[in-house]
Design goal:
Two copies of one chain form a homodimer. Chain A is α/β, with parallel strands linked by helices. Chain A has 15 helices and eleven strands. Chain A starts with a strand and ends in a 17-residue tail after the last helix. Chains A, B: InterPro entries: Diverse_substr_monoxygenases, Luciferase-like_dom, Luciferase-like_sf, NTA_MOA.
């Protein structure tokens, strides 16, 4: 079972920063992250995984000023470079958008992190779908779904092409003859496509794992297809066992149709686990965080979800009839159905949604949590999990001290790293250089 | 006297990587950089300064494969983040181009480095003028000079504007009331200009030095004007004392005309110093590196300089008559004049040019070097220097062990850091937030 430690600054739960033990300045406190990474490495997690958004999240100023999400936090690549310096074995996965970046920069920064960490970098390839991001990059609105994925596909092609600029043994560095690299081992990309023209070569050597591991989180049709063709790790949000198993089978079969081995793509659903020494203690931990969701934050999140401003309705009253919406059709319908099914007030509904924001949430003792992870793992629903501690550092400590030993007792999780690189630890194949490609002179 | 340590991977001299003591894999060896940074910090240098180019340098494959310049090396921001983790006081200056970047990314990454290092980051603002870079960013040729500087000016305006998204004390993080930031202290940029539309705010807090220090190296008319308006440190290449003093006076007077104090902009020329325990030893060190310039590298560099391919001419023969050129007019004329004046062969000419590439080169004992630095410093030519060790780590060790103590004996250089931030050590004013600006709601 593979395990990544997925970190929002103060934790995954929307109210995490208000937890009594939370580091409220977590987003700009690098010692906090250093401690988290060291804890995760001691527990032999595969990787630290950082989300990202190139904008503050939308919402009313009242809600923004209470939510603490993407408001003031480190940029992931600079932060992971620091973490690379203070760890030795754990992988380092950062998110970078294909929508508002240039492939040469992304290829180079991840190659640099991969070299600095001696083969521990991973790139979480995402597309940007919020207007807040578009407005920071000279656009009036965000790219529509199809265009985003077309750009993402070509972006990934350019990045992987740039990562093949050099064969593994290109750099001879022979001082006596004055030969720094073997000209035969340089491969110039010369990419000309719909969205990008990139000549190359990349001015960075290959790393001990060949190239960074590619992670992706697409769940739509085009998203899954892109993942099946390019991703080595798939990060996904699934609620029920049935959905989880179906998604897993779908991704593996799409990968095989794309000519890849099912083993070369690992599916790691997200899980927010509240762990206690007893079930009651775990439930208390959950209830404590839920009670800290400020109504302004919950209402703003729910309003965004249903495409309608609920801030003037009483939070302890019922969900009003909502006007039809174009942009949020399916999420609106799901929210209405959930409120109806469980007879929820507005508060009840946002409490269901805000805490985990779509990710599987489980509450219980170490045995309970291990049972549930084991079930999904053995049922063919997961190759492992992205563990999203509800609050930090406490939620990570709970998982490491209680759940990890239980998983080890069951023979499900490693006691020592298998390899030196992220790729080796994840059990992914080494991406051999396509050196058969005809070498082209740089000019 | 302010001193930065300016590092190319193996050293500033073109043949540095071939030096017997050089780290030939310097560009991808982070332990090498960690050692350099620690040495520079022990000597109380103001900052480590890294150059950058987002492409491999142009030239014949034969010359490229021998020159080792920008071929395989870390990206500066990821590298400086690592260095931030292993140092405490020294500044961290990285180059980032305004031509092929987005201001939001640059503002954010430097803000992140500034927070990680607790106020030690500097941004060296450059424009990109090579075709090799253009071709990596979906362009057929590089932007012409005027357009590059117009874009750079607006870019700098957006970046500094984003760095003012938050007042110093914006983040109250009051767990009890659930208030993370004070909405009154958020300032949304809403920039709409010729090249960029950027709403903001930046999702990063201000750092202990307010914002990163801005460094610039413009020497042309528009370059100097931009520096006078925006730069806090000016990096420049000057040969003679007269030129140095004239440039210094020019920059300071332009800054005053732009409404700034002359003290708020520090001029630091580059200097490549060959230091020995005797003059003869210093000269030997110089001769040794000069003898390691491979003819293919020297010819390629000189050909680029004069705009004419010299590779088929005998290196020990005279410079042939050169056809007129548009792109390289002034550099061609300077090269022809230098060859004529000193009666140089092609080899003699490229040896003059290749080693230091325009920077002031001095050779001598510690006293000689200190004399020359002191002369320029006291004549009003420099507030300090960008020290460019010819080879690394040896050239830095020589400067630190021999020249720095001599400068201290003369009372010219610090024995302890004056402040905690780069800005404090450079003696630059704190950039107070223009909080009088009307606060605007995020939405």
């Amino acid at each position: 079972m593979k395990l990544n430690a997925f970190f929002h600054p103060a934790g995954h739960h929307i109210a995490a920063w208000r937890h009594p033990d939370a580091q409220a300045d977590a987003g700009v406190n690098f010692r906090h992250y250093v401690e988290l990474a060291r804890t995760a490495e001691r527990a032999k997690f595969d990787a630290v995984f950082l989300a990202d958004t190139v904008a503050m999240h939308e919402g009313s100023l009242e809600a923004q000023s209470r939510a603490a999400r993407y408001v003031a936090q480190f940029e992931p690549l600079t932060l992971l470079s620091v973490i690379a310096a203070v760890t030795e074995r754990i992988g380092l996965i950062a998110t970078a958008s294909t929508t508002y970046n240039e492939p040469y920069h992304v290829a180079r920064k991840f190659a640099s992190l991969d070299l600095i960490s001696e083969g521990r970098a991973g790139w979480n390839l995402v597309t940007s779908a919020t207007e807040a991001e578009a407005l920071n990059f000279s656009r009036d609105k965000h790219l529509e779904h199809g265009a985003r994925y077309e750009r993402a596909r070509e972006f990934a092609e350019v990045v992987t092409g740039l990562w093949e600029s050099w064969e593994d043994d290109s750099f001879v560095r022979d001082k006596a003859s004055g030969r720094f690299f073997d000209p035969e081992k340089l491969h110039v990309l010369n990419h000309v496509g719909e969205h990008f023209q990139v000549r190359g070569p990349l001015n960075a050597a290959r790393s001990p794992q060949g190239r960074p591991v590619i992670v992706q989180a697409g769940s739509s049709g085009p998203g899954k297809q892109l993942a099946a063709e390019t991703a080595e790790v798939v990060f996904t949000a699934q609620q029920t066992l049935e959905e989880t198993v179906a998604f897993y089978a779908d991704i593996k079969s799409l990968a095989e149709k794309a000519g890849r081995s099912a083993d070369a793509i690992k599916v790691l659903p997200g899980v927010q686990a509240f762990v206690g020494r007893s079930r009651a203690e775990a439930q208390d931990k959950f209830d404590q965080l839920q009670s800290l969701i400020h109504p302004a934050v919950g209402l703003s999140l729910l309003s965004g979800m249903v495409g309608f401003d609920l801030s003037s309705y009483p939070v302890d009253g019922p969900l009003p009839d909502l006007p039809e919406t174009n942009d949020h059709k399916s999420r609106q319908a799901l929210s209405i159905a959930l409120a109806k099914r469980e007879n929820l007030t507005i508060r009840g509904l946002y409490e269901k949604i805000a805490g985990a924001r779509g990710h599987w949430t489980i509450i219980g003792s170490a045995e309970d949590i291990a049972d549930q992870l084991q079930e999904r793992f053995e049922a063919g629903g997961a190759d492992g999990f992205n563990v999203m501690p509800p609050h930090l550092p406490g939620g990570l400590d709970d998982f490491v001290e209680l759940v990890v030993p239980e998983l080890r007792r069951r023979g499900l999780f490693r006691t020592e790293y298998e390899g030196r690189t992220l790729r080796e630890n994840l059990g992914l194949p080494y991406p051999h250089h396509p050196a058969a490609r005809v070498a082209q002179a740089a000019e």
